[in-house]
Amino acid sequence: MHLSDEMRAELERRLDRIAAEQPDDLAFRDLPAADVVCLLAFVFFAAVGTVLLQAG
Amino acid sequence: MSAARITSPDALSAANLSASPVDDGLAQTLPLTRAERQWSFLDVLSVKSGLAIATWAFLFGGTTAQYVGFRDGVLTMLAGNTIGVVILLLALVLPSAKWGTEFFVHQRSVYGPVGALGFVLVVVVALVFAWAAILATMIGKSAVEIVRIAMPSVLPNVSLLQTTVAVLMLALAWVILIRGSASVRLLNRFAAPGLLLLCVWLMFALFSRVPLATLLAAPAIAPHPNRAANIMLVVELHIAGGISWGSLAANLGRYAQTQRAVVWGSLVAYVPVYVLAASVGLISALVLGSADPVSWMIPITGPLAGVLLLALLAIANLSSLVGMVQGNCQTLIQHGGARLQQLGWPRFTFMFFCCVAALVLLASDVLYGRFYTLIAFSEAILAPMCGIALADRLLLRRNTVILRALYDTSVNGPYAYWGRVNWAAFVALGAGAAVYLALLNPLTMTGTALFTRLSASVPAVITAFVTHVLLTRVVVMRAGKGAYGP
Known about the structure:
Distance between the termini of chain B: 39 Å
Strand order of the largest sheet of chain B: 1-2
Oligomer: heterodimer
CATH superfamily of chain B: Hydantoin permease
Order of helices and strands of chain A: HH
Shape of chain A: elongated
Strand content of chain A: under 5%
Number of strands of chain B: 2
Number of domains of chain A: 1
Structural class of chain A: mainly alpha
Largest sheet of chain B: 2 strands, antiparallel
Helix content of chain A: over 70%
Largest interface: A-B, 37 and 53 residues
Number of helices of chain A: 2
Order of helices and strands of chain B: HHHHHHHHHHHHHHHHHHHHEEHH
Number of strands of chain A: 0
CATH architecture of chain B: Orthogonal Bundle
Number of domains of chain B: 1
Structural class of chain B: mainly alpha
CATH topology of chain B: Hydantoin permease
Radius of gyration of chain B: 22 Å
Helix content of chain B: over 70%
Largest sheet of chain A: none
Distance between the termini of chain A: 53 Å
Strand content of chain B: under 5%
């Protein structure tokens, strides 16, 4: 990746700012376990539904 | 959808560095700060729903009708998309949402800087060329239908007219692109509501003319004799459809305030909202016995309204074409190095469109008619990619990444691996792709007995996951490569 000096300086500014923000930033908090369980439950139901459909 | 959906988000305006589309593309590789991550659940939902209701939904719905009827079609579309989108979210979207990084930049931690560039070339160039050719061909076919209605006494050379219009539309798309974002915005102002109108109009016309009992009894267009195989083919098609939102989903997801907002906003847009639009395609195809969206409008709504809807379809395709090429050319410029950047935006996009035009001239009918084959080949790459991303993030790196190292593309960088390529990840990718192609033949669309039970995508994801973990632990970590920690 080829960045101009101006763009490189902006990158450095951003990396510093993000390092400072990171501990408080909501976006950095991982998806709650309950949400992951819900997603996996959807996949489970989709898989079971497929098997039932195949059985007619 | 589809790999062709793979593109970049709007300009990273907060950087204020965007003097040209080339700078714009480069600015988008920068990580986002908290101030730029403002999208709520509703913002994610509305943006992604706008993308979900597009002409590719018709193509997926029409292809579904090849194998199953209405009830099975809706249920299998829901099941396949749910599985595909959840894999996509956990594997590819959450890392970009967490770190605020552009999708292909993030992949440098897995494949190395040059390896990620290889991905850009394969995914963006090969697949986007094909998708752009399909969209241009659909516009050409719309023009043929309009001419047939407007001038019934004239029987044009269908193939010549279709190809000529397709190439002219590519030229128009290039003009719109080089005129800048204002022209693109103007086009989208008509395209998005136009496509929504098209969906509602078609649905209303279908339900007012076709009794529900007839619809429920309508047989699939060209199913295989084995019901279980038909069901799995459609589920597989939609797993591939869900995963193929790929980098577009990831790049848009990084604008969200929280990971919860991006996950649920994306899931609602890419599953129920998308399935609603695809159902229009499914019903139309079942009623008329054709998977081609262009052939539906006039028989369903009559000649006058049909011509209007075909025009709307053409505008919507033009809009998708422009958006897709804009995002992907920026991605190419981001990763392509100084020489590519020095070409400049008009010259670079012109070359891109020339390649697509060549594809239209040489193979548009093949691509258009073998839509599922294209999707299956792209899935043979994207499904293992998800398995590798899951293994790398969750098991090997324990959800950490060195943000600064993603931008260090030197041979001595933390993610340089061997010559800036992580060959182990590519071996895992090859293993996953081999399993996919062994289970499902994309050319004949026939699968093995195991495919009927397990699909092709899920075993490909699992194979790539296991291979990447084993190779990384045995080879990469022992060699002290890839900054995997102690």
